[in-house]
Inverse folding.
């Protein structure tokens, strides 16, 4: 079975920093930034490279600002 490497892209300007995605991630890839976006929210950001592409974060995001990518690795 091929292994899968994942990656996420978060639209930081649309993220309101609710944090629902953080406990949904099994590998602790997401955290709230210390910086703020244009609306003044501490947005979610990727903090490590351990994403497995499970898409739990994108599923629970109420605003749909997370896109998950998956790539097979040999």
């Amino acid at each position: 079975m091929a292994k899968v490497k994942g990656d996420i892209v978060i639209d930081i300007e649309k993220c309101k920093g609710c944090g629902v995605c953080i406990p949904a991630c099994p590998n602790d890839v997401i955290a709230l930034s210390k910086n703020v976006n244009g609306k003044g929210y501490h947005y979610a950001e990727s903090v490590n490279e351990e994403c497995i592409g499970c898409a739990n974060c994108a599923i629970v995001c109420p605003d749909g600002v997370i896109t998950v990518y998956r790539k097979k690795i040999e």
